[in-house]
Amino acid sequence: MSDSAELDAMAAPLARVAAFPAMPATASEAVSSLTAEPDDTALMLRYRNGDLRAFELLYSRHKGPLYRYLQRLCRHQEVANDLFQEVWGKVIASRERYEVKAQFNTFLFRIAHNCAVDYFRRADRQQIGRMDDVADMQEELSGSANEQPDERVAQIQVQASFRQALAQLPPEQRDAFLLFEETGLSLEEIGKVTGVAMETAKSRLRYALGKLRGALDAHRPHRLEQGSQS
Q1: pTM strictly above 0.70
Q2: Going by fewer Cβ within 10 Å, which terminus of the chain is more open, N or C?
Q3: Model confidence over 35-69: pLDDT tens digits?
Q4: How many domains does the chain divide into?
């Protein structure tokens, strides 16, 4: 099994718990997704040459993953909003100097990563910020009305454990996990975004996935049964 396939398999049990609501798509975005569109690199080159519609398409494609990455990295909506605007501002400012050295996704999230690092450095914070308790509770309590109360409580507990484990990851491991989950970047591209070798990115992601899976394993019934039999 390849490194990428192995990490995909490790991440699979985390997908549902780690899911974060996407920004709502407009009707025009839904229609455009059904039609053939130029790739990101072509759009950025068109934007460099003054095509504003090309930028609108790039923004439409990437705003959701970018915002989710920043919000989950910062755990503070106001900071995420500010960084979101800063990232797109840098994309706009760099358009005339843009060269095709990597896919647009790598270029965009490299800017986002650097903006986040600069923010935490300015704030003299090495750890991710506090959770927005009110927003988290609203999200956790917004489940289906058909769910049984005990099932909903169990789901909330699992989500809370996952979020706590994510918040407790070292910043480098958390960043690698969020890039892996939100962007679809390869290990090599995650390394480029974060400025490290691919093996370092792989190691960070492996440790992050192991810790997050450990947090979820604590809620599995067979673990509880084994504990009661010992």
Answers
A1: no
A2: C
A3: 456 789 999 999 999 899 999 999 999 999 999 99
A4: 1
